[in-house]
Design a protein that fits this description.
7 strands, globular, Rossmann fold, seven-stranded mixed sheet, alpha/beta, purine biosynthesis, 6 helices, binds glycinamide ribonucleotide, transferase, GART
């Protein structure tokens, strides 16, 4: 059974999809903790499901690296990234760049979901950037996190057509409707071994 640590910053609809999937009998992974960099509303999904949560705020630390060390240690306390089974860290709406030390601690067992077809539109405003570029399509990417910003090896993608004049929030919601099952299925494939992370990371 693959142990998951899920990291969020916001509403946590991807987290909720992962909780619902991992509660199904036979799903080959379970969530052992949910971490956030702020008092994210989505933490309530974890609490309702009886999953331990923690918040580690960057502003409480002197540097990003120090924050990353404390964040990593909080995950490891739950048995992810320690011992013979590496587990998997899932960044599902964590709106913060993870420092290099954190990435090296878990790599390549560290994935992110991003609302664009990477390498297009990396960063914090992927949906807005796709609209601003006049794109007619965008999508979602699940990828291994490396030390760059949304530059790690792509695992799975799904495409969405952009409707003319479509508002950002509506487009993002349509992306999320594809994103949630894509993330769940990617985690399932990693847990069963159908998708290998070792040797995939470019780093
Ligand atoms: C998701 O669409 C995720 O891809 C995006 O934040 C949203 C979180 O939604 N992440 C990024 O943009 C990271 N650069 P949720 O809180 O409802 O799961």
């Amino acid at each position: 059974m693959l142990k998951l640590a899920v990291l969020i910053s916001g509403g946590g609809s991807n987290l909720k999809a992962l909780i619902e999937a991992t509660e199904q009998p036979g799903f080959p992974a379970r969530i052992v903790c949910v971490g956030a960099d702020t008092e994210a509303p989505g933490l309530a999904h974890a609490t309702a499901a009886g999953i331990p949560t923690f918040v580690v705020r960057p502003r409480d630390y002197g540097s990003r690296d120090e924050w990353g060390q404390v964040f990593a240690a909080a995950i490891q306390e739950h048995g992810v990234g320690t011992g013979p089974e590496p587990g998997l860290v899932v960044s599902a709406g964590l709106m913060r760049i993870l420092p290099g030390g954190f990435v090296r601690e878990f790599s390549p067992h560290l994935i992110n979901t991003h609302p664009a077809l990477l390498p297009l539109y990396p960063g914090a405003h992927a949906v807005r950037d796709a609209l601003a570029a006049g794109a007619t399509e965008t999508g979602v990417t699940v990828h291994i996190i490396d030390e760059g910003v949304d530059t790690g090896p792509v695992l799975r993608q799904a495409r969405v057509d952009i409707a003319p004049g479509e508002p950002e929030d509506e487009l993002h919601e349509r992306i999320k409707q594809l994103e949630r099952p894509l993330l769940v299925e990617t985690v399932r494939e990693i847990a069963t071994g159908a998708l290998q992370l070792e040797g995939t990371a470019a780093a």
